[in-house]
Amino acid sequence: MAAPRTGTGSGTDTAAPRRTAGRPTQRERSDATVEDLLTAARALFAADGYAATSLDAVCERAGVTKGALYHHFSGKKQLFSAVYTREQERLAERISAAYLRVEDPWEAVYEGSRAYLEASLDPEVQRITLLDAPGALGWEAMRDLGVNCRQLTLRGVKYAIKQGAVAPRPPDPLTSMLYGGLSESAMAIVRAEDPRAALAETLADLRKLFDALATGR
Fold this sequence. Notes:
The chain contains 10 helices and no strands. The chain has 217 residues and is mainly alpha-helical.
């Protein structure tokens, strides 16, 4: 919390207005509106898809006016981008949790990778991040917004190399191959006739790849 500003010499207290007991501040009301919009937008984007979701429907579900939406977002694309960013943050949390459950640093990267692929079976994640995002945002924007997951992979690869779980090598090329391959595999799993079977086949090959790169300490 920032320290209150002092007067300018006139003796007048210019500190920011204090919150009245029981009444939310303007910032809290603004944050609550954004939260309501993102929650409503995610539900509609996940259920109906980007193209079929209207801003009127989002506002109705969130209980806010169209003007309130445009105060925070320039339009549907920016709103979807914010929802997609949140999905990436949730995915990063899921990957981190899977990674931290394992002590071996290279096996931990595998578990994080598996968590990434397993998330593709969630219909809501599929719709927002894999089916609609490429058309709504474009690959370049998706790559920029998905940087958290790539950074997690890079940190895991670097640590595995540092600990000798993987032979010494530049970490970036391996990270790019892993992250790029996982992203493409997730897309393939979603579009497969039997996604669960496709996931099992992908994980079997991923297991072989990780075993081949492990040093076998």
